[in-house]
Amino acid sequence: MKKATIQLGTLTCPSCMQKIENATKALNGVEKESVNVLFNSSKVKLDFDDEKISVEDIQNAITALGYEVKKSQVKDK
Amino acid sequence: MQRFILSKKNHIMLIGAILIVIGFTAELGFKNEAIAVLCLAIASILGVAPIAIQAYQALKVKVVSIDVLVTIAVVGAFLIRNLEESAIVTFLFLFGAYLEQRTLNKTRSAIKELTEMAPESALKQTATGEFEEVEVDDVDVGDVLLVKTGAKIPVDGTVLTGEGHINEASITGEAIPVGKKKDSHVYAGTILENGTIQIIADRVGEDTTFGKIIELVEEAQDSKSEAERFIDKFSKYYTPAVLVLAIIVWAISKDIELAITILVLGCPGALVIGVPVSNVAGIGNGARNGVLLKGSEVIHYFSKVDTIVFDKTGTLTVGNPKVTDKVIYDDNIDEVLSYLASVENESDHPLARAIVEHIGDTKFYSVEKTDVVKGGGVVANIDGHRVAVGNVVMMEQENIHLSEKSREDIANLERAGNSLVLTSVDGELKVLMGIRDQIRPGVKEDLQKLKRLGVKNLVVLSGDNQGTVDLVAKELGLTEAHGHMLPEYKASHIEDLKAKGHIVAFVGDGVNDSPSLALAQIGIAMGNGTDVAIETSDIVLMNSDFSRLPHALGLTKATSANMRQNIVIAVGVVVTLLTGVFLSEFVNMSIGMLVHELSILVVILNGMRLLGYKLRR
Q1: How many CB pairs under 8 A join A and B?
Q2: Looking at domain B322-436, which of 3.40.1110.10, 3.30.390.50, 3.30.70.20, 3.40.50.300 is its CATH number?
Q3: If you placed Cys at B550, which of B80, B85, B139, B449 could pair as Cys (CB 3.0 to 4.6 Å)?
Q4: Which one has a higher pLDDT value, B466 or B460?
Q5: Does residue B53 contact residue B90 with C-beta atoms inside 8 Å?
Q6: Do A65 and B272 count as a contact with CB atoms less than 8 A apart?
Q7: What string of DSSP letters covers B133-170?
Q8: Chain B residues touching chain A at CB-CB below 8 Å
Q9: Looking at CA atoms only, how far is residue B28 from chain A in angstroms?
Q10: Is pLDDT at B1 greater than 80 in this prediction?
Q11: Topology of B121-203 in CATH?
């Protein structure tokens, strides 16, 4: 299990949070309970299984929604 | 393609605006229907493109977002050939989003300033002994780093070589540079004002004190109160409900125009953004002013506080007590004082430090079998003698006989506001010391401010004797004072206050009062950038600055009121518009969208007022 903190471009609409949350939760390998989208700091924090999915895949899922990914940090859990 | 359109949102908005102006001029000024229709049609199609893409992406992940409502409404208006409406609505929606982003960034600016103080690079020693610049994320515990004058300390660490002065304002709030030499601890985010040092990394990244402060503030600004969670849940069902309502209205009235108007009017914009905006601006103001607020739940509770309980030593007083009186009951006093200094030298209790300082240069013995009696004192063996150091309660536990005279001395010293430390050797009282602490400057005025802000009960709980505590209470105008309080009594006293229906805040130094900090609805730590204080409390007053407390209370009250205003504005706007659409001719789609976007801006601007909040005298 890894813990990722993904910094996004500024989030402005609270419904963006819901979109990002649903999109990342739907990914296979992402721990559903761990997904936390922070509106004001425009960050996504989540735990994922690095054998099933890479952080790049998660980033792609977010950019596919039209949100900019600035950088991400992955740590062992 | 999708991404291209989204990234050009602002250009589309501008083109839309120009086309709308041309369209209306053509129609009204030159009565040229054809050009007007063309311009408005292009403006509508261009304008709806980014909104429709967002709507599609939302639906893909099963979210009925505002974009979905607006897209349906615009497409509907287009189909019934109401092109003015479709063009203006798309423009207003895009323009609103643009303004929202600009203003939101302002409300978040205070916290951004804080995070931008985080160090980014470090000079790390490589295997060859050279130093090379690396990103701060690439520094590991144990790495040796070079810090030059003017640079930020990249991690928490210990000085290996060199000397310098460091400005630790980012951690402690204190701007006077602190001298550092070999073996001194240095903290990430602080600035080396002069000198050059090499440090070894002890804690890196989020584990550093600065990292923890940032993480705390970041999480606080996004933490949600119960009311907010309710709004979130509400809006999850609210948007689909608006869609359903529009369909029902259409089915009954067969009036497409009315149905799509409802779609636009029902947008929940201001409601979902109002509370987070107040929250982030309030916490941002705090962070700038040395008050760390851990989230909106904390703001909610603290704004309603009616009872504040204070620890005495180090909170109301400076915490640097001095020995002021000494009564001796034995001729061989030098040896007793040596024993006493030896015992107290092992403790970092403020009273112990005062005693060691008072005795000064003396012979130190080795101390064995030290036993700390909580809230009482210390018992130890020195040179074959049993030495007990502590308060009156402990002397009684030790079965030490207190003569008539000593009891009188005790009463006298206590009345004068001293903390008492008694020392016995082999069951006999040898010396009595009275120790007094200075009241922090300005505390009295700060307590007055708290009272004016509506706090009814100001309580002091202390392990000291009743005389000392009463004296402090009288001088400061406190409403209640309790002495002889062990940590567990303090906690149960707070429990009692809570049971009586009070909302209780506890202010302490965060180290020995953690049960009370945790038990009170609001735990306030006088933090000196220490981890314990940051972790166990709900509010941290940086650099142990007591004068921040009234600001903190005023700020939470203002923030809480601001949230309520925003909810009222948001709900009021939706209700007014929805009644307007049914009861008057005046409300149409464009007006609905305009009022909506305005209400969003109003709540953001209202939230922004908090950034400049200052406690009035």
Answers
A1: 73
A2: 3.40.1110.10
A3: B449
A4: B460
A5: no
A6: no
A7: EEEGGG--TT-EEEE-TTPBP-SEEEEEEEEEEEE-HH
A8: 2-3, 6, 53-54, 57-58, 60-63, 65-67, 97, 100-101, 104-105, 108, 111, 137, 218-219, 221-222, 232, 235-236, 239, 269, 272-273, 276, 279-280
A9: 36
A10: no
A11: 2.70.150
Tens digits of residue pLDDT in B498-516: 899 999 999 887 556 777 8
Comparing B589 with B404, the larger pLDDT belongs to B404
Which chain A residue's Cα is nearest to B107? A40
A60 in contact with chain B, both atoms CB, cutoff 8 A: no
Residue B556: per-residue pLDDT: 93
Predicted confidence at residue B77, as pLDDT, reads 83
Interchain contact, A38 vs B222, CB within 8 Å: yes
Residue ranges covered by each domain of chain A: 2-76
Q: Which of B60, B100, B279 sits opposite A12 (nearest CB)?
A: B100
Q: What is the nearest CA distance from B98 to chain A, expressed in angstroms?
A: 9
Q: How many helices (H) and strands (E) does chain A have?
A: 2, 4
Query: pLDDT tens digits, residue range A9-31?
Result: 877 766 677 888 888 888 888 88
pLDDT digits (tens, 9 = 90+) for A28-61: 888 888 888 887 778 888 898 888 888 888 888 8
Query: Max CA-CA distance within chain A?
Result: 33
| Chain B CB contacts of A41 below 8 Å | 108, 111, 218, 221-222
**In angstroms, rounded to a whole number, what is the distance separating the alpha carbons of residues B506 and B491?**
10
Q: Residue B116 to residues B202, B211, B570: CA-CA distances in angstroms?
A: 22, 12, 33
Beta carbons of B502 and B306 less than 8 angstroms apart: yes
Domain ranges of chain B: 2-107, 121-203, 322-436
Q: And the tokens for A17? A: 């949070």
| Active site annotation includes B311 | yes
Chain B's closest residue to A63, CA to CA, is B3
CB contact under 8 A, B97 and A65: no
Q: Does the model's pTM come out above 0.90?
A: no
- Work out the mean pLDDT of chain B and round it to a whole number: 82
Cα angle for residues B89, B91, B93 (degrees, 5° grid): 70
8 Å CB contact of A12 and B101: yes
Residues of chain A found within 8 Å of residue B57, distances taken between Cβ atoms: 19, 64-66
Q: What is the DSSP letter of A49?
A: -
CA B517 from chain center: how many Å? 15
Optimal mutation site among B56, B61, B239, B596, interface A, most CBs of chain A within 10 A: B61
The three-state (H, E, C) secondary structure of B114-141, written as one string: HHCCCCCEEEEECCCCCEEEEEHHHCCC
| Angle, CA of B74, B78 and B81, to the nearest 5° | 145
Query: Is the separation of the CB atoms in B327 and B429 below 8 Å?
Result: no
Residue B209: the pLDDT is 80
CATH class of A2-76: alpha beta
Catalytic residue among B311, B409, B437, B545: B311
Q: Judge whether residue B175 has pLDDT over 70.
A: no
Provide the pLDDT for residue B617.
55
The SS3 of residue B249 is: helix
Locate A65 and state its tokens: 């929604």
